[in-house]
Design brief:
Helix content is 21%, strand content 26%. The chain is of the alpha+beta class. Strand 1 and strand 2 form a beta hairpin. The longest helix is centred in the C-terminal third of the chain and has 13 residues. The relative contact order is 0.11. About 6% of the residues have low confidence.
Length: 431
């Protein structure tokens, strides 16, 4: 008979992550493309991937790591396909149909199917009085503003104790919470006494609301709080469990946390030396955070060229800054914002992806920008499948099997930022 695997699931774009309570691989994961015929490498991960390909022909890529299976589906994920994916993993070790009943009925909102459990306080093993001391020792900032766009998507403003964080538009810094803080999900973490007393950290691009309460463009010099645009994730696209957002999404205004004292990153506007150049800012989901801050800077500088922002999300509700972008587009003749969705009813049967729009020429028609490599800078942030960064052998690029924006534009004469070479395709590896 074998033993069933208890499975949780979550969806982010065309990628679903199925997390079980049984290990499938060791430290090194493995990825498989259906188009390759999944050649047998002798690993258990191969058998898992082949099972997913056999069950659902629309799945074209599977990555298996630890107890997670990440699957990409051409037609996106609906309830039936998600249920089939769960059943595939649940029954992987079952030799005949005698599986246990589903005791983990999924709950939660759009984009997350995780069994939610009420936090019961801090993690056992750290006394309350020590936790107070750890927070005092490590935390150096306060949540001054919180917009719960929906259950999986929040906008935070963080006020550092040290005053103002110096940064350039497009850069990122670090947020952190102690491993001693409770999680809102039921992920089990193997933490020893030393790890329990450390910070879970992650880097986040700095965002911007762009328009102030007075209806005018924000003045960065008057802003001391730092804005972040954050989506709740249980694990990343490779299946590695998240350590920060399940803790962060239990916080409220006035709560304390850690913020880095420095900002970093090469994803910046200072590579543009022509005020008449066309600027195209392409992103997926919360990857538009740094693009928001750069949009504000370009408009404040009075940039003379065209500025176009494009962002893809599942639903319009996942575009938290949509109304702000629309206001800016009405106010500035040289600014345009194009929201793209993949799950709204009107998208049924005709999914919209940034790379496909560029390849077909539709994006150029929509914006009136010809994507001239001599007069255009393109900024990319978000899903690595959209960006499509190559691997390099000296100066020779090898592109991913799935064509991304970098390969498409490179064929048209654009040049990628690489090493010390400054090109006109700029990217941030957000995931």
């Amino acid at each position: 008979m074998g033993q069933s695997i208890r499975v949780h699931r979550r969806v982010q774009g065309d990628i679903a992550v199925f997390s079980g309570d049984r290990s499938l691989t060791g430290q090194d994961g493995a990825g498989y493309f259906a188009a390759d015929g999944t050649p047998d490498d002798g690993k258990l991960s191969h058998k898992v991937a082949q099972r997913f390909f056999d069950v659902d022909p629309q799945i074209d890529y599977v990555y298996v790591a630890f107890n997670h299976v990440m699957a990409r589906r051409n037609e996106g994920w609906d309830e039936d396909s998600l249920e089939a994916g769960c059943e595939t993993l649940e029954g992987f070790f079952v030799f005949y149909d005698g599986r246990l009943p589903d005791i983990d009925a999924p709950v939660g909102g759009i984009g997350r199917d995780v069994e939610m459990v009420a936090p019961t306080g801090v993690i056992a093993g750290v006394p309350d009085e020590e936790i107070d001391a750890l927070r005092t020792e490590h935390y150096n900032a306060t949540i001054s503003y919180l917009d719960k766009v929906h259950e999986d998507l929040w906008i935070f403003r963080i006020q550092p104790d040290y005053g103002t964080l110096a940064y350039k538009p497009g850069q990122y810094t670090t947020l952190g919470l102690g491993f001693w803080e409770p999680r809102l999900d039921d992920q089990h973490e193997e933490l020893d006494d030393e790890q329990l007393r450390k910070l879970a950290r992650r880097s986040y691009s700095i965002s911007s609301s762009m328009i102030g309460d007075d209806g005018e463009l924000l003045d960065p010099a008057a802003e001391t709080a730092v804005e972040f645009y954050v989506v709740l994730v249980e694990s990343d696209w490779q299946g590695t469990p998240a350590v920060l957002t399940p803790r962060l999404f239990l916080k409220e205004e006035g709560d304390r946390l850690f913020i880095g004292r420095k900002a970093a990153g090469r994803y910046r506007l200072d590579k543009i030396d022509d005020p008449t150049a066309d600027i195209v800012l392409l992103s997926t989901g919360t990857g538009e955070a740094p693009n928001n801050r750069m949009t504000l800077e370009l408009l404040r500088q009075g940039h003379q060229g065209r500025i176009v922002g494009v962002c893809t999300a599942r639903y319009l509700r996942d575009l938290a800054y949509l109304d702000t972008h629309r206001k800016l587009a009405e106010r500035y003749d040289n600014y345009e914002y194009i929201p793209l969705t993949t799950r709204e009813a009107e998208n049924e049967g005709q999914k919209v992806y940034i790379q496909d729009l560029i390849e077909s020429g539709e994006l150029q028609e929509m914006t009136g920008i010809g994507l001239d490599s001599e007069s255009t800078h393109v900024f990319l942030c978000g899903n690595p499948l959209m960006i499509g960064l190559p691997e390099w052998d000296d100066d020779i690029p090898t592109y991913p099997e799935t064509r991304g924006v970098v390969e498409i534009l490179s064929e048209r004469g654009f040049r990628l930022d690489h090493g010390r070479f400054v090109g006109n395709i700029h990217y941030e590896e957000y995931w």
